Write the structure tokens for this entry.
Amino acid sequence: MLLLSAGNTNDITMAHALIEAAGPFRKLLADRGHDVDHLRKRLAERSAEAVIPTTTSRRRPIPYDVVAYRQRKTVERLWAKLKDYRRAATRYDTLSANYLSGVLIAAAVCYWAK
């Protein structure tokens, strides 16, 4: 699932929309930036496990599945490869549909070249 937002917004603002659009799932892998109570509550309501490391500001760390969290690097590597494509790294397109199309084409090329 891929949703576009403005470049100056925080990732957590799109988290609820992604959860609703994703359909059923068992685990959500995310980085420390998504360690907020309202997201964890939403995941618990959907009976999904939050695989999110806690921020250092929490008094009591919340345990998470470290082995499952390692799978997150696959997505991070894809975005790193996508940034090699200038069109995807720097958003020159004014229309979000054009930008999304360019990113999807670059993702397909990355997958095909693998």
